[in-house]
C-alpha cells in the first residue's frame, strides 16, 4: 500500500469536506481530483459521512486516498474501513486510536499540538501528524518541532491555511496541508470548489 508520504508527494493538500452530503460528494470529488488533489477527508460530523466516504472510495479509490476526519472512537475506525476509506484523521492526540487504525490496516494522521503529544503518537505508529489548530501556532513553532521530529515524517498544518500563507509553512518544514473552508463550504457547488482548488495548486507551483 502506498504511504501517506507517497500521496502527499503527488499533491500535498488534504481536502477536508466538512458538511458535505452524499449527493454532493462525487461531483465535488471530481472537481478536486480534476484539479490534481489526491487526498480527500470527510469529517464524521458531516451528514451521513460513511455513505459519502463509500461513494468517494468507489468512484476515486484508484486515484485518491479517501478517509474520515474527526474520528473519535474505535467503532468509527471499523466503519471507516468497511466503507472503503483508507485514512483516519483525528482532531486530537489519542495513541489508542492510532494503534486501532493500524490494526485495521489504515493510514493514521492524528492531531497534535505539543512535542509530548507528537512523540506519543509517533510511538503508536502514526503515519503523519496534523498540527492543529495551526492558527494557534506559527511557522516558527513548526520549524522548532521539525528539529526534533523524524525528518521523513509528514507534518501538516491544519486550520486557517490559504494559498497566500502556504509558503512560510513549507519553508518551515510542512510536507502538506489540510484545507477545509478554503476549499469547500456547505453549499459550494463543484465549479466553486474547482476554482478554489486551482488557486491552491497555482500557489504550490509558484
Automatic annotation (TrEMBL):
GO terms for molecular function: 2-dehydro-3-deoxy-6-phosphogalactonate aldolase activity. Keywords: Carbohydrate metabolism, Lyase. Pathway: Carbohydrate acid metabolism. NCBIfam families: PRK09140.1. Its EC number is 4.1.2.21. It comes from Acidiphilium multivorum (strain DSM 11245 / JCM 8867 / NBRC 100883 / AIU 301). PANTHER family: 2-DEHYDRO-3-DEOXY-6-PHOSPHOGALACTONATE ALDOLASE-RELATED (PTHR30246:SF1), 2-KETO-3-DEOXY-6-PHOSPHOGLUCONATE ALDOLASE (PTHR30246). It is an enzyme of class 4 (lyase). This is 2-dehydro-3-deoxy-6-phosphogalactonate aldolase. InterPro entries: Aldlse_KDPG_KHG (IPR000887), Aldolase_TIM (IPR013785). Belongs to the KHG/KDPG aldolase family. Signal peptide: none annotated. Homotrimer.
